[in-house]
Fold these 2 entries.
Entry 1:
Amino acid sequence: MGNEVEREGGGVQSVDRALSVLKLLARHGELGVSELAAELGVHRSTAFRLVATLENHDLVHQNGDRGRYRLGVGVLRLAGATTARLDVVQEGRPVGSRLAAEVGETVNIAILDRDEALYLDQMAGTSALQAHNWTGRRIALHATSNGKVLLAHAPEGRFEEVTAGRLARYTDRTVTDAARLREELDAVRERGYATAVDELEVGLTAVAAPVFGADGRVVASLSASGPTFRLAAERLPAVADQVMAAAVEISSRLGWYGRARFGQQGKRDKS
Amino acid sequence: MGNEVEREGGGVQSVDRALSVLKLLARHGELGVSELAAELGVHRSTAFRLVATLENHDLVHQNGDRGRYRLGVGVLRLAGATTARLDVVQEGRPVGSRLAAEVGETVNIAILDRDEALYLDQMAGTSALQAHNWTGRRIALHATSNGKVLLAHAPEGRFEEVTAGRLARYTDRTVTDAARLREELDAVRERGYATAVDELEVGLTAVAAPVFGADGRVVASLSASGPTFRLAAERLPAVADQVMAAAVEISSRLGWYGRARFGQQGKRDKS
DNA sequence: GCATTGTGGTGCGTGATACGCAACTGGAGA
DNA sequence: TCTCCAGTTGCGTATCACGCACCACAATGC
């Protein structure tokens, strides 16, 4: 066949196409059979059978009787199972909850997803003011403490990708200069934690530390965040110590036996 | 047409199998190629190619180099797009936020997902104590105000399914008697709202009202919830009015022009 | 240490199957 | 009413996904 479209997915053709349908729907929100067919480069009937199969599994949902298609609740069911099964979340939740109770602030767990931070779980603190819930959100890497931690430990090259375009400015304290960001990331690796004060939102401060997997690579970031007036500059180092300790404990639960670089010996998890 | 009514997945076979893989992983958490092949009733190589295709789209993730498979972050990406695109969430968020500000309590939007309530979105209230975030959670129908609303307006037969087994008890005020639950659901249809006081968790009170779609059926439930001492019995009717008004506004945004069909039980064909 | 058993992973030929075609249906404008 | 364009569906055929056989590697047993 002549115009072979760059076989991005590889593997089983029809499955590949079906998953592409999901991605297209994620991007465009709502598409008709003909539009999908055009995007995939297949006949309308083929596209129809793909969405019909997806619909049988509740992964897409049709508007009205002969309407267009959009993503369905089956996706949400899968997502619930995904976060519940992810090691980081499973191991991180009890530790994170304790940390939230200790510092009295909201605790988040985030992972690196492409060029953004993906927030997986959130544990509410005890204090009055609570941040908006971030679970499932994806936020730029340069404006949050979690993002800085993840970017600081990301595979080489990611930094260049992120800083290739312009860095979005959220407040007047957002770091938008690539050189300054690089310096800060160096400091993050050095100290073992990152901070973000009024950088994503005025009045919001956060501290984050890396969580290591069994292979020693950073798999997630753990943060505590709250209003800047409660997380004042002089309190940050102390909070950072608590966050780092919690992050190390999660790491050890994930099978990380690496060196205790930050002066904290992780408790060993049997099994 | 017609001979194959039973084909569970129907449609494209390989896609059907791939989606079954996702469901199996959701249920079991972690499976190897051979286990998947056994579950699907196909050859190992076939199962392998399916997961490989899924992996190319980040929907599954392999543990280690030759390890087992589990659901991947691609699912979370899709889920983010799903909730963002769902009509109920899109139309409900502004209204829900305003409601949260008005009553000062946490507002949730939930839909009926099989025999559970699926919480789609949450808008934080202004008050001190904030409930834990429920977005993405799935909770039993008989113990929350949202669940009661959804169950009260669910297709006939759902009630029997839910009450077929034993109803889980969460607190000593949880309704675990099917007959009493049925009475309460009748009242919910009558009044147009549901309440749950200390039924899921001691100290937690909620009020919920139905959201109607363009076709007049209940598509979601809107609730306000907070600590019982703030949502005392004498305040509940007033809060319920606010919640119902907000629910009606969302309904009208969804194209619902009818009047609330409170007390309508017409769809019943009991035999 | 070597065989054994099991796993994930891979070329290859072939027949089931998923595809494109074309005709159908039903709603929306003109 | 006609036309147009969308989502569907029956059908024959060539494609492509399947099972087979086999490989590489790890973890067992002896």
Note: Chain B touches chain A through 55 residues (CB under 8 Å).
Entry 2:
Amino acid sequence: MLKSLPRESTKNYLQTGKFSIVSYGKNSIIHFADERCHDLEIILSGKVIVERIDEAGNLLTVAEFYEDDIVGGNLIFSQNPYYPMTVTARLPTTILKVDKETLFKLFCQNPPLLRTYLEIVADHALILGDKIKHYVNKTIRESIISFLKYESKKQNSRHIELNITKKALAEKMGVQRTSLSRELAKMRNEGLISYDARSIKILKPDL
Amino acid sequence: MLKSLPRESTKNYLQTGKFSIVSYGKNSIIHFADERCHDLEIILSGKVIVERIDEAGNLLTVAEFYEDDIVGGNLIFSQNPYYPMTVTARLPTTILKVDKETLFKLFCQNPPLLRTYLEIVADHALILGDKIKHYVNKTIRESIISFLKYESKKQNSRHIELNITKKALAEKMGVQRTSLSRELAKMRNEGLISYDARSIKILKPDL
DNA sequence: TTTCGGGTGTTACCTCTGTAACACCTTTTT
DNA sequence: AAAAAGGTGTTACAGAGGTAACACCCGAAA
């Protein structure tokens, strides 16, 4: 995203206050749920996650964003621009805040920037759609199978490295860690998979 | 959306095939899940719903769109433009298909159109976010309370008119109709609500 | 080295909710 | 008016998964 912004005007806007740079510490909250969204935010460095936290404190991690990605893009031009979920810096994070009207002006002057923006926003909407498609109202076993098939394809191997903790995986699925653990054990007993703390191996390809 | 399209060029594009008009019968499928999205679609008349249908045939109605709304807007500029869910005409429906590149050209020439588009796409993304926020991985009772609070605010009354059937409500929540029915009965027995086939009344405002 | 925090694995218990089957009612079609 | 189609309410049953409690393991800090 950043690459598509014209360098010169970026400097300019930073001086006039249309753009600004803000830093957040590890695990600090960038936006609470229901907070109003004023600016588009471009991640300069760090890791940002979007999660739903319910009254009981249960977590559902909805999306993760890294350097050069944007936050609030699906929101900023809405008639009702309030963050529906909590936005947190998972690592120390620096972001560039871009004023909405300035952004719109830039779009009109700079079609490639608009194009990039439209792509990113569309891809983000798909993440939400996928979340609903793959994890919502499915059994834990179905969620696990969805996950394994996706990772197996991505890593091109039946032996899947878990690059996240099982705890984080449970949060991605929106289930209890113990329930995930229980279901994995069941699948192992049935001879479908084997696993340790860091990886899972698919024994029956068709699961 | 349609109002923002310049009349003259619309006629033109219809003749050159960049735009086209298609009709669908009641309950016919407009797009299957995983089908590629080629065009932006503007609903000229009718009712379109987006739903997830799992292998067992369970429904989760994700969104409903009516006249002048758009379908595929969150998708069309994605790098991976495949419909994540099924799109169905719930009533006889006529849509205007708009070619992607033609649309982009129009955006660059017509900022108000771009603005309208960005607003609609943002609002649609919020629908998905809300779906996750209010209905995903919650108990049926929590879903009911979310729904009642929202409708009570919207209708500005504790006596809520259900303008949809309970069957449709169950599909919106992604639960079985009988389970919804059972939970409503429980809440009635606890003195929280009263209801009939067409309306629900909140007896304890704090539920 | 010891200590401590956090992830992992396991299990008994119990609640929630999907399933299936039925009766009843309303609306639409014939 | 009769028949067909579809929504509504209810309940016994069974399975999935949340809760809580515990043991174990590993890596970082002291």
Note: The interface with chain A takes residues 33, 52, 54, 58, 60, 62, 74-81, 84-85, 104, 107-108, 111, 114-115, 118-119, 121-126, 128-133, 136-138, 142, 174-175 of chain B (CB under 8 Å).
